[in-house]
Write a structure and sequence with these properties.
The protein is an alpha/beta fold. The chain has three domains: about 5-145 and about 275-340, FAD/NAD(P)-binding domain (3-Layer(bba) Sandwich), CATH 3.50.50; about 160-270, FAD/NAD(P)-binding domain (3-Layer(bba) Sandwich); about 345-460, Enolase-like, domain 1. It is built from 14 helices and 22 strands. The strands form five sheets. Strands 1, 2, 3, 4, 5, 6 and 17 form a seven-stranded mixed beta sheet that branches. Helix 1 packs parallel to helix 9 (about 320-335), helix 3 (about 50-65) runs antiparallel to helix 4 (about 80-105) and helix 3 packs parallel to helix 6. The longest helix has 25 residues, at about 80-105. The radius of gyration is 24 Å and the shape is globular. About 45% of the residues are buried.
Length: about 475
């Protein structure tokens, strides 16, 4: 007899394990299936967490090399990449074990294996030894995340032509690295390997980096990254990548048809991700997909098969861990008869380079497109006491507010700790705050957060320190 569960979550990433825990908290007998062998999904194993570890460690390495400029003199600084990678792996192991403990604590049954639908109420689990287990489920939530995509005719070997996964596991610092794609992941990995000594070239098809981000922030970001030594080749199309004995040749063509080849040791292809729905057997149970192979859902995250739900990277929306987590909680609450929902206008996006870049709500370009009249408040970190005191003053805070109501419509930051500062604006937007509400809130001095207050004051043209 198949073991019976009230809810089964296929996928143990940020969306899946959070969903499973919330379902269990709400009193449902819950199982979570994960194929990787460790919980946490792409984010924890080969994405957000290891990349942030390497971003931090490479930044520390860079800082130490430049301490003598600030009166701290030390001996020769050496890179031990193997040790750095072990530190990164240790962080991942501790956190994945922590998630496993959380499932156990909340009495979620954890199955290690690949889950697929045998029927709409039965899930087949195949473990690494091909042993099969069938469980029955009243409600099933698909949370299988996404996988990297490449360009046509270019396949990952994770040695020379790498995805973000391979870029996190390089055994030596490449002399030269070509990064295809100027989005979040490509720029983070560019920063890591540039700081550790690589000559990095970013090839981007568009005329700007970070597509979809506020243009002013995007332009400032590229200026700063250029100063840091990263090379950009905009409006270049990659035509082919051919490996040879020593690395690869990346052949490109610019907007005028001029061809250029790049000889490189490593090619990181970072052009996006696609929903991971393969091998779920969705066609057998009739779950509908859209034209981008994402699972179609209604506002309750329910598919056209009424007891099957989907969240995270397999459905419409930004492919972000925190978006998946919020959806995981919302769908669990909906299944339990509560009113779970996600406010998609207040999901922040962060790039963890130095400086950090953070964004929430609408951009100026989006507001103009919708003919929404707005006012802008901007404040530079050059005029922020804390930033100047620690010599970390590149960037600015920009707040966009409705011209009539002063309601905050969006905010875009580039500068120190932008990823933390964006949370204040997220809370303000959740409560429908005006820029004046932020401006009249007392901020500690000296802090980076004062730049947020000054930007809010600037909306009404009354900033004090600029």
């Amino acid at each position: 007899m198949a073991e019976k569960f009230q809810a089964v979550v296929i996928g143990g990433g940020p969306g899946g394990y959070v969903c499973a825990i919330r379902l269990a908290q709400l009193g449902l007998k819950t199982a979570c299936i994960e194929s990787r062998g460790s919980l946490g999904g792409t984010c924890l194993n080969v994405g957000c967490i290891p990349s942030k570890s390497l971003l931090n460690l490479s930044e520390e390495f860079h800082k130490v090399q430049n301490l003598s400029n600030k009166g701290i003199e030390i001996g020769e600084v050496k890179l031990n990449l193997s040790k750095m990678m072990k530190s990164k792996d240790k962080a991942v192991t501790i956190l994945t074990k922590g998630v496993e403990f959380l499932l156990k604590k909340n009495k979620v049954t954890y199955f290690k294996g690949t889950g697929s639908f045998k029927s709409k109420n039965e899930v087949l689990i195949k473990d690494e030894k091909n042993k099969e287990t069938i469980i029955s489920s009243e409600k099933t939530i698909i949370a299988t995340g996404s996988v990297p995509v490449s360009l046509p005719g270019i396949d990952f070997d994770e040695k020379v032509i790498v995805s973000s996964t391979g870029a996190l596991k390089l055994e030596k610092v490449p002399k030269k690295m070509v990064v295809v794609g100027g989005g979040y992941i490509g720029l983070e990995m560019s920063s890591v390997w540039s700081r550790l000594g690589s000559e990095v070239h970013v090839i981007e098809f568009l005329d700007h980096i970070t597509p979809g981000m506020d243009k002013e922030v995007s332009q400032e970001f590229m200026k700063i990254l250029k100063k840091q030594g990263i090379n950009f080749h905009m409006q270049h199309k990659v035509e082919s990548v051919k490996t040879n004995g020593s690395g690869a040749i990346v052949s490109t063509k610019d907007k005028d048809g001029n061809k250029k080849d790049f000889n490189t040791d490593i090619v990181l292809v970072s052009v996006g991700r696609k929903p991971n729905t393969k091998n779920l057997n969705l066609e057998k149970i009739g779950v509908e997909l859209d034209d981008k192979k994402r699972i179609k859902t209604n506002k309750y995250f329910q598919t056209n098969v009424n007891n099957i739900y989907a969240i995270g990277d397999v459905i419409v929306g930004p492919m972000l861990a925190h978006k998946a987590e919020d959806e995981g909680v919302a769908v669990a609450e909906n299944i339990a008869g509560q009113s779970g929902h996600v406010n998609y206008n207040t999901i922040p996006g962060v790039i963890y380079t130095t400086p950090e870049v953070a964004s929430i709500g609408q951009t100026e370009e989006q507001l103009k497109e919708k003919n929404i009249k707005y006012r802008t408040g901007k404040f530079s970190f050059m005029a922020n006491s804390r930033a100047k005191a620690i010599d970390d003053s590149e960037g600015f805070v920009k707040i966009l507010a409705d011209e009539k109501t002063d309601k905050v419509l969006g905010a875009h930051l580039i500068g120190p700790h932008a990823g933390e500062l964006i949370a204040e604006i997220g809370i303000a937007m959740e409560f429908g705050a005006s820029s004046e509400d932020i401006a009249r809130t007392c901020h500690a001095h000296p802090t980076f957060s004062e730049a947020v207050k000054e930007a809010a004051l600037s909306v009404d043209k009354r900033a004090i320190h600029s």
